[in-house]
UniProtKB/TrEMBL annotation:
Species this protein is from: Pontibacillus yanchengensis Y32
Main location, first listed in the record: cytoplasm
Functional description taken from the UniProt entry: Specifically methylates the N3 position of the uracil ring of uridine 1498 (m3U1498) in 16S rRNA. Acts on the fully assembled 30S ribosomal subunit.
CDD domains according to UniProt: RsmE-like
Residue ranges occupied by any Ribosomal RNA small subunit methyltransferase E methyltransferase domain in the UniProt entry: 73-243
Residue ranges of domain Ribosomal RNA small subunit methyltransferase E PUA-like in the record: 18-58
Entry EC number(s): 2.1.1.193
Protein name: Ribosomal RNA small subunit methyltransferase E
Record-linked Gene3D superfamilies: 3.40.1280.10, Hypothetical PUA domain-like, domain 1 (2.40.240.20)
Record keywords: Cytoplasm, Methyltransferase, rRNA processing, S-adenosyl-L-methionine, Transferase
Length: 250
């Protein structure tokens, strides 16, 4: 069943009002009519089965049939800090990361990031990425939309890391080292409701300075298997491993 995320202003008693692009999607793409049913989600992550009772050119009004008891979110809150990659790879990271349960994305301007954003471009990119996260959340039947933050730097990451239970660096050199810390050694200790931050470098990886500063700030360097992964593959690897541990093994 088609799912939509509705802002707080769209909820009133037993009714839900959808506006903007959702109206176009309901009427032109899905070609829905009155009495058709959809699922609407609140900003707090509650989902309701709703019946369409009125359609106008700029508004769709629904009646709440019943509230649903859904448990679609990853038990741990995982933030993906992604070093800015080239091209449209960031869009892929956010789309697939959302499908796999990430709760937050932080674009990170690493020393070896080839891509550079000015303030205007960073704002446009954030808006674009947030839209991708919303669409991926609807497609994957999540009850929450991940947040895509503004562009961050190393100092800001280290400061924000104080609020997390686990802080990991997906460091490519760990895959080459004879003595290494594997992701599988860490994941069994992650508990539901804990906050996990994972920092992933761009195509060129991390500089020695970045790794030094992060490890000095108590970030753990981990290996993601014996092979070197592309920057856009690493988030999916990590989220899949955490999902398997917390959702399939428990």
């Amino acid at each position: 069943m088609q799912r939509y995320f509705v802002s707080s202003s769209g909820w009133e008693h037993q009714h839900v009002t959808l506006t903007g692009e959702d109206v176009h999607h309901i009427t032109k793409v899905m070609r829905m009519k009155t009495d058709d049913e959809i699922i609407c989600c609140t900003p707090e992550g509650q989902a309701a089965l709703c019946k369409i009772i009125e359609i106008t050119h700029d508004m769709v009004t629904c009646y709440i049939v019943k509230w649903l008891d859904e448990d679609k979110e990853l038990p741990a809150q995982v933030t993906i800090v992604q070093g800015l990659p080239k091209g449209d790879k960031m869009e892929l990271v956010i789309q697939k990361g959302t499908e796999l349960g990430a709760s937050r994305f932080i674009p990170f301007e690493a020393e070896r990031s080839i891509v550079k954003w000015d303030a205007k471009k960073a704002q446009k990119k954030q808006e674009r990425y947030q839209k991708i996260a919303k669409e991926a959340s609807e497609q994957s039947h999540r009850t929450m939309i991940p947040t895509v933050t503004q562009l961050s730097n190393l100092k800001q990451l280290i400061e924000e890391g104080h609020d997390y239970d686990w802080k990991l660096i997906a460091y490519e050199d760990e895959a080459k080292a004879p003595s290494f810390r594997s992701l599988k050694e860490v994941i069994p200790f992650i508990k539901p409701s804990e906050r996990v931050m994972v920092v992933i470098g761009p195509e060129g990886g991390f500089s020695e300075n970045e790794v030094h500063q992060l490890t000095e700030a108590s970030f753990l360097s981990v290996r993601l298997g014996p092979r070197i992964l592309r920057t856009e593959t690493a988030p999916a690897y990590i989220l899949s491993a955490i999902s398997y541990q917390l959702e399939e093994l428990r």
